[in-house]
Amino acid sequence: MARGLNKVILIGNLGADPEIKYTPGGTAIANLRFATNENRKNREGEWGEMTEWHRVVMFGKQAETCKDYLKKGSRLYLEGRIQTRSWDDQSGKKQYMTEIVGQTMIMLDSRHDDNTSAGSSKPSSQPEPSHQQSENYRDDDLPF
Questions:
Q1: Whole-model pTM?
Q2: Does 79 fall in a domain?
Q3: Residue 126 in domain
Q4: Which whole-number Å values give the CA distances from 41 to 37, 44, 53, in the listed order?
Q5: For 142, which DSSP code?
Q6: Is 25 inside a domain boundary?
Q7: Residue 30's domain spans which residues?
Q8: Domain tally for the chain?
């Protein structure tokens, strides 16, 4: 039997600061609003930029890195897999959410601190790009 492949590769920007939560066991979870853009022709034949929004979730040390180093507008290279979760809402109706579980993240912003004065180029203390794989978590470990 052939195995399937579930892999997503994105380059884009954060649309908001990362939202950080923790499991009861203390594992960090970062939820990211992530935007990718592409240029396309519209129906009138004019070129325009189209934005697609993605939900991305990162776990463990990578989530901590998101908390410490990322902010709205940060540019990232992300690799991960698509996952759809379901739950019953308060009225008993089944709800679904599709998200990307991040596995590899590389920060693409320059390594300069945004808070430096004009003419100064003080390097920030950003870590090397993160290439580690996220740990496996069960859905019932997640606090949402």
A1: 0.70
A2: yes
A3: no
A4: 13, 8, 19
A5: S
A6: yes
A7: 1-36+49-111
A8: 1
Q: 88: burial class by Cβ within 10 Å (0-12, 13-18, 19+)?
A: exposed
What's the CA gap between 17 and 43, in Å, rounded? 34
pLDDT per residue as tens digits for the range 70-124: 999 999 999 999 999 999 999 999 999 999 999 999 999 876 555 433 333 333 3
The predicted-structure confidence for 12-61, as pLDDT tens digits, reads as follows: 999 999 999 999 999 999 999 999 999 988 888 899 999 999 999 999 99
Report the b/e string of 60-79 with b at 16+ CB within 10 A: bebbebbeebbeeebebebb
- Distance in angstroms (rounded) separating the CA atoms of residues 23 and 116: 36
Are the C-beta atoms of residues 81 and 55 closer than 8 Å to each other?
no
Indicate which CATH number applies to the domain containing 54: 2.40.50.140
Quick check: is 132 in a domain?
no
